């Protein structure tokens, strides 16, 4: 009997393959970063062929490190950066252009085109989403309108659309030789083309955006056997789970009951709250989205607060301003000063997402004086993450009517204890880090393992969850209020920077 489950975690900056055991512990892992391509201001691209090559490389590396073969895996799941948009030739497997990454803002004119006759929320009732450069549907429309020959190929079904999960699944299950062209409900819910109620492509949205149905993948549950992997070294293993990365983290954190929530700190940060089997419309600037669907069970929905830039701000300080050589160096630098020195950073590099949804906002550093140093700027960068999460938590409490009592956290930034303590201080609730921090990959493994019968049900998964660290709030209420008031003032300064 296979002893483990594998998970492909294809993220914004890297691809990873992680092998888990029945207790949800990591057996083996390999990782490789891919290029970030910036052709113009606001444009962000990835090379799809580099992503599939790196994925295959890390699969082989992780298996080799633990001396495993495909026969040792009961199933493999995929979790992926969401909204990143691809279109490729179904006969050759060649992309028609680079992937348009979720944070790419080249569709701002398309957003204006659709908001000018109906407003930003004109499609919220059926998609759960505001009009924004964030989502995949308008990125696909941009490709169809700007890449020569793309529309004709897509209309004939000779060009295939997909988010990264679809691209990986198609390649792993055969590519031009019969690869499965599918996506799951969580990724489909981020295109702005899926109807929240039916969990199928919405004919009116396709007509509004002029998207040819022939290019679209089939929408499947998040835990389901999609096909057999046909590529080395996983040949013969079933592909059985697909979840967008934030929904995968929700599953990995075993947030299966309404009101349970998690926040993932990565390139951006994303908070999701399970709202059960009925979608909850947001009036506070959040997204209504799919949480997961296991086999034929009813889909579960979530409220989501999406923050575009958190960990990416640390990368910017490292790569663009050269304040330190490695991302891990920001914590001791920030801790070398007692406070932020009056400095506040609003990292609206690609506009502001939840709860503001201001595409024309841009980043600002406020409160600079001659007193400010690189340490103060570094501390302000970490604090910006915590402030943005508080913005989302307050909106989520407004929409759901549920008061947050503890925040489950995961993602790369949770290793930063200064940030975790400041987050607890800003929220005035406990912040908890799980024993297995790789909850995104774990969620994909859980989805795949459930479909393959490796785990019997969600109670097996709940039994695996355990805390590794906990931070309690330790800041006077007046100090908390002042910090947050100054943050809100800085946010206002970022609005309307880009002229229409």
What does this structure look like?
By secondary structure, the protein is α+β, with helices and mostly antiparallel strands. Helices cover 34% and strands 23% of the residues. The protein is built from 16 helices and 23 strands. Helix 9 (245-252) packs across helix 14 (439-452) and helix 12 packs across helix 13. The mean pLDDT is 95.
Distance between the termini: 61 Å
For the largest beta-sheet, the strand count, sense and barrel status come to: 7 strands, mixed
Low-confidence spans: none
Average predicted confidence as pLDDT: 95
Total number of strands:
23
Q: What would you call the structural class?
A: alpha+beta
Number of helices: 16
Fraction in beta strands: 15-25%
Radius of gyration: 22 Å
What portion of residues is helical?
25-40%
- State the shape: globular
The strand order across the widest sheet is 17-18-16-15-21-22-23
Topology readout:
Layout: E1 4-10, E2 14-20, E3 26-33, E4 45-46, H1 48-65, E5 73-80, E6 86-89, E7 99-100, H2 108-115, H3 124-127, H4 136-146, H5 150-156, E8 159-162, H6 164-172, E9 182-184, H7 185-188, E10 194-195, E11 200-201, H8 203-209, E12 218-220, E13 223-228, E14 238-244, H9 245-252, E15 261-265, E16 269-276, E17 287-292, E18 300-307, H10 311-319, H11 330-335, E19 344-346, E20 364-366, H12 374-400, E21 406-410, H13 417-427, E22 430-434, H14 439-452, H15 458-464, E23 467-471, H16 477-494
Parallel strand pairs: 1-5, 5-14, 9-12, 15-21, 21-22
Antiparallel strand pairs: 1-2, 2-3, 4-7, 6-8, 10-11, 13-14, 15-16, 16-18, 17-18, 19-20, 22-23
